[in-house]
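Changelog entry: the Histidine kinase/HSP90-like ATPase domain-containing protein record was regenerated in this release. Current contents:
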Amino acid sequence: MPSTARAPRAARQLLGGLLERVDGGGRFAEDGALVVTELVSNAVRHGQPGGARRLVFVRFDLAVDRLTVEVHDASPLPPCEVTPDAMAQAGRGLLLVRALTTSWGWGPREGVGKAVWAVLAPAGGPPRSRSARRAAPGQVGD
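Regenerated structure tokens:
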């Protein structure tokens, strides 16, 4: 999808459409929407080297016990989890991703850029993650 301010909404709509068509998909809807919004927002804001607008690729993998969200962008730089000042209006996206997922991480893409992934349990599922990890090439989202 184009890397524009509209991309997070478009990604939420894609995920919502998928989850509506799958029995039990609604168990991932709320947290999935927040996570895909944060990851795509980061890709739009930070994943475009030199300010060039490139495409953002979003991929979903849904199973009975998990939803994996992958967002690919053109930047090779890793995502940076920060602790923002209490009055800051931004900077909490990856903290939110960590709080809502069982695991998350990133890995380089073949060619250019990286993929950031997050795995969500259904509502009422296992405990959430506390850290990120870097995936080996070819292991994004495993």
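The chain has one domain: 7-134.
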